[in-house]
Structures
1.
Amino acid sequence: MAVESGTILRGSDGSGARVEILGARNVPLGGPRAMTVRRTLPQRGRTLIGAWCFADHYGPDDIAATGGMDVAPHPHTGLQTVSWLFSGEIEHCDSLGSHALVRPGELNLMTGGSGISHSEVSTSGTTTLHGVQLWVALPDEHRNTARDFQHHVPDPVSLDGAELRVFLGSLAGVTSPVRTFTPLLGAELALAAGASVTLRLDAGFEHGILVDAGDIHVDGTAVRPAELAYAAPGRTTLTVTNGARESARLILLGGPPFGEEIVMWWNFVGRTHEDIVRARDDWQNASERFGHVEGYDGERLPAPALPHATLTPRRNPSPPGGQVR
Ligand code: MN
């Protein structure tokens, strides 16, 4: 179950051999009938896994009860957003003029670069909303790249009782054609009841396994639904088993340690306090930097007030064992 504050729950033995379990905290997304998400990144014990800097997991929500998702136009800078659904449908409108339906099993990757704005609303035909929203930090040399939007539907591949959908990077002989600015891995794994699968990994990557459903063990360590297991670089395999009588589902994330310190605030990723202040001012002043979203019925989201303190980089701890190549 989600706990109120993100913490390292168990598994950190300092050897680097075991996985570390990161708990989720419940965060209201906002809106008139706020939908609650389970956030595992960032948290005190970990800011990034590769360039993955944000992980929200939600549902299955009966949207007749929760009101679903209704996020008014808001800006992003310095990052890419990944929308990945298990069920339901979300209408995405952005300041590139993209008007897309986000559907289960389909990658929608939006590049904020210097600046973009978008809205996200679950469609009227949606009854159950269930999925993840992930962000990728852009490396310094590309963080002011042009805004972009990409869509990709990965073919499922079977491996030892698992069905894999590789939406970014390479796994099990499958490579996503979607361009990224740092090496990344992003995949959905569905595991049959009782299945055990050993994944071959890039030893230069660190990995995260976010469990949606199932009785999951990762290299022998139990990972409960909504928890994120972290595996330090240096591994060539990871074995995932499902002890449940029903099928399990998880999201696998990976990438080489990011190596840059980032400043994250609201919907912005920068490098300094001044980067964030400028982005906030530009949004509040309706600068062309973020463009304009057509197709949303309502006002755009105002930025919250900045904290009084100077924003400082979030420090990412060294992986357990401290060995990073
Ligand atoms: Mn967004």
Note: Residues 131 and 261 are 28 Å apart (CA to CA).
2.
Amino acid sequence: MLTPQPVAWSADESLASHLEQRGISRRQFVEFCGQMAAVLGLSSLAAPRIASALETLKRPSVVWLQLQECTGCVESVIRTSEPTIGDLVLDVISLDYQHTLMAAAGAAAEKALADTTKHNAGKYLLVVTGSVPTNAHGIYTTIGGKTARSVLEETAKGAAAVIALGACAHWGSVQASKPNPTGAVGVSEIIRDKPVVNIAGCPPIADVVTATIVHYLTYNRLPALDADGRPRFAYQNRIHDQCPKRAHYDAGQFVRAFDDDGARKGYCLYEVGCKGPATFSPCPIFMWNSRTSWPIGAGHPCIGCTERNFWDTMTPFYNRLPNVVGVGVEHTADVLGASLALGALAGVGAHAAATGIYQIRSRHHARSTQLPPASAPPEAYKAPSAVTTSQHKED
Ligand code: SF4
Ligand code: SF4
Ligand code: F3S
């Protein structure tokens, strides 16, 4: 277990020497770089390059704005059961301005933001959580007397790149759900003249945040993105295709009520509303709280929180999706349930076929998941967002 000591990081000190002073060994640091390469979907050959880029790093500046949001994203990123090197990397680069975590408040905090953006113009990373209210001239969220929109626009001017962290910053989330009284929009609706990466989820996974920042620091550019601006390394696979309960789905073994025998046996949650078949996210792999659990692992259906408009398109959360029919190839849950004897064989074929179908669909569909109302026929189901950017070349 890592036991970092609190040591201040001076401006001209490298990250490697700072971590050493905090009790992190070279071996642990290299292991961390290997983990980051794996998270980014790169080969192990990329690890030395990541290590070499990070160890010479000199206090990169990150400004973190919190707009119209619930602070859950901040909690997700900073709360772990033990400090990791990832926490330390985020910790040491992210505190130039963060109004929940920083000691300064009021005018002193505003001055810190102004000083940071002035002294690091063109170089700092801007992280944003929360949506931007646009109705009534944006008065629904103000910081230091300025609207969230004007603070965002001003701060983004000097940023090298922008990370929109969480569903609120990605597309507006619950505030933007119908009827969207504040006119909430995501960051990329406001900032259009520089790269914005959407780290989707409510909240997103801390490892994805760390890996995106590590990628930026190593290669001096953001990772490859899908059509919705999400990093491909994290959001290119469906939850349904990575889910440990998939064998139960394929075998037609479903939870029908949260306290039934199927629930006790850990069966598939499709019948109680799981949106995993329509959701792209690495939740089953990375998980939360030092990889101890995730929603489906805890017995709760996925509500599709990494998909744009999920409050409108994935609700009612506890109603099952319309049957996910793969043009006559992927069996529906009902067919599978009625054909247990053939379940395993059908499931293997269905899984492979479904993956192919979704990859093919992904190349042809733009942007967000669109699910029909619960009463709509299955044919109305549309595949989730497309992947349009090129493969990783970094390793
Ligand atoms: Fe809160 Fe979810 Fe918005 Fe993050 S994305 S600020 S957890 S509502
Ligand atoms: Fe897992 Fe949900 Fe798919 Fe069942 S429907 S296999 S619980 S993702
Ligand atoms: Fe969200 Fe579903 Fe993962 S609800 S956290 S995308 S399991």
Note: The longest strand covers residues 62-66.
3.
Amino acid sequence: MRIGILTSGGDCPGINATIRGVSKTAINHYGMEVVGIHSGFQGLLTKDVEVLTEKSLSGLLNLGGTMLGTSREKPFKRGGIMGDVDKPSLILQNIRDLGLDCIVTIGGNGTQKTAAKLAGIGVNVVSVPKTIDNDIWGTDFSFGFDSAVTIATDAIDRLHSTASSHKRVMVIEVMGHKAGWIALYSGMAGGGDVILLPEIPYNIHTIGETILARLKKGKPYSIVVVAEGIQTGTEGKKRAAEYIAQEIEYETGIETRETVLGYIQRGGSPTPFDRNLSTRMGGHATELIAQGQFSRMVALQGSDIASVPLTDVAGKLKLVTEDHDLVVQGRRMGICFG
Ligand code: F6P
């Protein structure tokens, strides 16, 4: 078999480890040929590809980003670099021209949707969930998430120094798009006093009261972790951290500073957990191909790697719920979720 592999959407730690997992398993175990497609679905439209070899697959396990490059090209949306071309038909033609029996798509929610559509027009597709946001339905965790949480937790740990020395409130904004997974996991691991998630509505007076109550208990500083996707009442004008910091200072009179962590969260080496998750997911994706089980996304369910139909995943989001154990235990300990 000759399989194509592409990475689409935002970069994240563990993509290269997944490319390695898919490709080495394909070449060494199944005797398949692997073709790397550059720049996501864009490369499938322009036939920008390279054959992957043992040599090109070296040094990937701990390497950040994606050796294939990525883009946010959506082949089922008209326009973009191809003008008015019928992109799905062009992709079908290019897959035939390149002699590909199957495509492995590594990406987030947008990619899963596109993969499901490609399967719908007859392409053999197997997909792997990739995102620091951890918001892909059907998998308990996506690779990249643990690395992002590790980076964000380290950043929160470091903010404690300024918070306690200056007796300030330090607000940190973390990524996550519409989901609060990074804020929840890094906020809890970093000892946040207030953690704000898009999924849980907050009241700014309650947050102010929590911070003032801490002051009365002899704790003159606080750490506030906010997800980028929370409602701010100033859509498009202010970042979440800026808005919340300004409101807290107004409510409490305590000097408050904000930090936006940004793209640092998705750069650099994956954690050992993400390297192993990527390796397992990559290997299982190739196994699905060998078994002829297409139109599926590899998924972590508990401690096992399974797979789910792409049609079940497409268009859904996995969000934090109020009964998540970290929220329940956090609330019992006095952490304010808004
Ligand atoms: O999905 C990953 C992510 O980093 C989100 O957390 C963030 O909202 C988004 O990508 C940023 O996208 P872009 O790379 O297009 O700025």
Note: The chain has a mean pLDDT of 97.
